[in-house]
Amino acid sequence: MKGSTDVPCETTKSLAIISAGYCRGAPKDGTEAGPTAVLNSGLFAQLQAHFGAIHLDIDRPDGADIHKSLDPDFAGMKNPRAVSVATKHVSERVYEYSRNGSLVLTLGGDHSNAIGSLTGATRGLREKLDSNVAVICVDAHVSINTPDTSPSGNIHGMPLAFATGIAQTKGEGIFDWIEKKHLIDVKRLVYVGTRDVDDKEKEIIATHGIKVFDMDQIRRNGIESVMDEVMNYIGGSIPIHLSCDIDVLDPEWAPSAGHLVPDGLSLDEGQYIARRVHSTERLAAMDLVEVNPSIDLPGVQRTVDSACFLIRSALGVSYE
Ligand SMILES: NC(=[NH2+])NCCC[C@H](N)C(=O)O
User: If you take atom 9 of ligand 1, which residue's CA is the nearest one?
Assistant: First the structure.
């Protein structure tokens, strides 16, 4: 693996969508229905009209349905075997499409799915472009607990720890598929919109010098100025992975999510972030996770609509 240089990103020609409806990383079921709810709300047709043919990947991997009784807690993680198998599958699918030059959209599912999308895109883009990837993580949380620091054992609180290599695999085959070639560079990782960070996560962020623009900074300086800083920080040439947890939005805009945190981004601010990323012409991969259609039923359509707005804005898709 040579992937340590920065090179210009190629213009993406085709779109691949990975439907990653896996939910064992979260304490509540329901996010398995997220991809279908988002795609069936008109988004798929809009994307088709914009991109032409789309690769849609809805295969379910063998092993993802490991019965809970066969998947006891391990090293501080809940449902570790199921999540490891599911995220490996997502990683391999995202890798194939990224390596072939497609823009890849991964729809969760809970946030553990980002272990798959981040590692797959990073590996694929390294191979194709010999380039690092900048990751803009738009999330109410920093999702960087390790199995040791996690207060809950839920792997949806750990994706950035596995995708950066800060969390190491500990045996029994769980996450042993993650190798150096998959790992994102912490110096190219930046968070926007955080407001619920565990104490141990603060230590991890400080130890590794990871860049965070939290809600306080957004309220103080405005989203435009924060995004100027984000863009300066990641630099002007490398491909971008936009990783979105829907809970970054204020619960007013996304009530159907498992871990609501007040005082989040307005939909306009979320769209602004997505548009800024689109305008770089360097978006190579995006994920959108944690839409949970079984929570707050009257709010499901609003949540799905918000998710679709963010996706269309990032992908530069207009509709009517
Ligand atoms: N994707 C999410 N909603 N994550 C919530 C994580 C909450 C908490 N920090 C944990 O690690 O358990």
Answer: 157
CATH dotted code for 15-315: 3.40.800.10
> 150 CB less than 6 Å from ligand 1?
yes
Which residue has the CA at smallest separation from atom 4 of ligand 1?
157
Average pLDDT over residues 252-257: 98
149 lines ligand 1 (CB under 6 A): no
Question: What pLDDT, on a 0 to 100 scale, did the predictor assign at position 63?
Answer: 58
Q: What is the pLDDT of residue 3?
A: 38
Q: Does position 236 have pLDDT exceeding 90, yes or no?
A: no
Atom 7 of ligand 1 has which residue's CA nearest to it? 157
pLDDT at position 320, please?
62
Distances from the Cα of 151 to the Cαs of 5, 31, 183, 251, in angstroms?
Answer: 37, 21, 24, 23
* Cα 135 to Cα 285: distance, rounded to the nearest angstrom: 9
